[in-house]
């Protein structure tokens, strides 16, 4: 399997859910659950160890089981002391759990240096079965758990799994909290960068003009060997990989990811434009844009575990797509490069020629057919989205059932409702959405 360039790791990492620092580490030990490798082949008895964490500090017999689903990153035990499931555990005397996703973190069936064939068990369907089997087994191990109601929680892809768990296993899952959950699976995710365009345009025409012109100037420079070296020198030492190993496609993709930072503050647009517009007449738009990227790169680019990056790459190459394309006139990055071609080339070079666009489009069509896309009829699920989150464009925008509310919070970013910090204090509508969400889950779990 080809080596994944460090620069590409940074770009792929931006597709993943954030690992949010929730404060001091929680002193909790790794727990292990023996999980079936293939839930769909009864003749295959192979198992592997799936990691989970348990926090029973508030638990009272008969209290609910509050399970946070791990997504496309290594789970962190610090999240056991924060977030919606922790707050509900405190209020309801619940057992707080966190389950890692197969192939991520320490829950990898095959370890490092996997063959492509060994990735075949990494699917959303297998992950859903993992969660269902875990819930069944966990409830059966202790008499006081057997009558406990169950709620699942998730952010980003894990929020998608939380929604699908309630849809597919209503006899096991009584309620779900889905944060920034993408439900419309698509290859051509042209809306992703539209949110960046809206963000800068809403502040001022000058701001969006600097972003557009700066990106154009970067493209012109990168078209020549001399310009490429100039751009590399400009970004030397940034947090998004070794720039000397980057080509023009990777550099431009990284610039776009920094400028569309999905984990931003409510004041991100205004603060960003204040910096971008504070340029003197001798500074080019590219130079000002580069200074901004260097200031913000640490918020987007981080050292992802190569195993996590490869696992999410496999999932996007086989089931989800989510290619951040540049075809929309509403996004600020004018570029003729086909991001779908770039992404599919990566898929075929990394996993094999059979991982092509036809295979992926069939898989995406099936996922939307089976799980209903954004027309999914599901009950007792709270969905919270933010207008500053690019992923809201492929998430639920409206309520489809009377007891499945959708909150689209102005100014909120990706998974903002899962943070325990000052962010919430700055957005009264986010506070209101969370209060309503808590009251509904308490009602459903009593």
TrEMBL record:
Alphabetical keyword list: Glycoprotein, Hydrolase, Protease, Signal
Superkingdom, natural source: Eukaryota
GO MF term set: dipeptidyl-peptidase activity; serine-type exopeptidase activity
Keyword flag Protease: yes
A Pfam short name: Peptidase_S28
InterPro entries cross-referenced by the UniProt entry: AB_hydrolase_fold, Peptidase_S28, Ser_carbopepase_S28_SKS
Signal peptide bounds: 1-17
BP GO terms, sorted: proteolysis
PANTHER family: PROTEASE S28 PRO-X CARBOXYPEPTIDASE-RELATED (PTHR11010), RE36938P-RELATED (PTHR11010:SF5)
Family the entry assigns: Belongs to the peptidase S28 family.
Protein name, per record: Serine protease K12H4.7
Organism: Photinus pyralis (Common eastern firefly)
């Amino acid at each position: 399997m080809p080596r994944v360039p460090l620069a590409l790791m940074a770009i792929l990492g931006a597709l993943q859910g954030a690992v949010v620092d929730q404060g001091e580490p929680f002193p909790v030990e790794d727990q292990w659950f023996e999980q079936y490798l293939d839930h769909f082949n009864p003749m295959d008895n192979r198992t592997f160890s799936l990691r989970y964490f348990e926090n029973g500090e508030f638990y009272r017999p008969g209290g609910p089981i509050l399970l946070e689903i791990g997504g496309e990153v290594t789970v962190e035990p610090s999240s056991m002391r924060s977030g919606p499931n922790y707050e509900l555990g405190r209020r309801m005397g619940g057992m707080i759990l966190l389950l890692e996703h197969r192939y991520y973190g320490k829950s990898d069936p095959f370890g490092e240096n996997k063959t492509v064939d060994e990735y075949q068990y990494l699917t959303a369907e297998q992950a859903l079965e993992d969660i269902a089997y875990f819930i069944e087994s966990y409830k059966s191990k202790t008499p006081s758990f057997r009558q406990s109601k169950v709620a699942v929680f998730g952010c980003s892809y894990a929020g998608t799994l939380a929604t699908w768990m309630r849809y597919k296993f209503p006899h096991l899952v009584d309620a779900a909290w889905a944060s920034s959950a993408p439900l419309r699976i698509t290859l051509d995710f042209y809306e992703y960068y539209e949110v960046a365009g809206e963000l800068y345009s809403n502040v001022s025409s000058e701001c969006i003009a600097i972003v557009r012109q700066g990106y154009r100037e970067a493209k012109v420079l990168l078209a020549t060997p001399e310009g490429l070296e100039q751009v590399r020198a400009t970004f030397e030492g940034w947090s998004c990989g070794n720039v000397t190993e980057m080509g023009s496609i990777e550099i431009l993709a990284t610039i776009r990811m920094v400028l569309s930072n999905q984990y931003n503050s409510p004041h991100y647009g205004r603060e960003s434009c204040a910096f971008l517009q504070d340029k003197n007449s001798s500074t080019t738009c590219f130079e000002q844009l580069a200074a901004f990227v260097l200031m913000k790169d640490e918020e987007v680019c981080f050292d992802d575990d190569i195993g996590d990056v490869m696992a999410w790459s496999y999932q996007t190459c086989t089931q989800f797509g989510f290619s951040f394309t540049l075809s929309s006139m509403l996004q600020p990055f004018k570029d003729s490069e086909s991001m779908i071609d770039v992404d599919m080339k990566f898929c075929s070079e990394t996993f094999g020629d059979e991982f092509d666009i036809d295979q992926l489009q069939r898989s995406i069509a099936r996922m939307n057919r089976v799980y209903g896309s954004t027309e999914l009829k599901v009950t007792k699920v709270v969905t919270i989205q933010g207008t500053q989150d690019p992923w809201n464009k492929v998430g639920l925008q409206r309520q489809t059932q009377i007891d499945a509310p959708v909150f689209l919070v102005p100014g909120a970013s990706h998974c903002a409702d899962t943070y325990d910090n000052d962010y919430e204090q700055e957005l009264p509508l986010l506070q209101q959405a969370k209060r309503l969400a808590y009251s509904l889950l308490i009602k459903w779990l009593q």
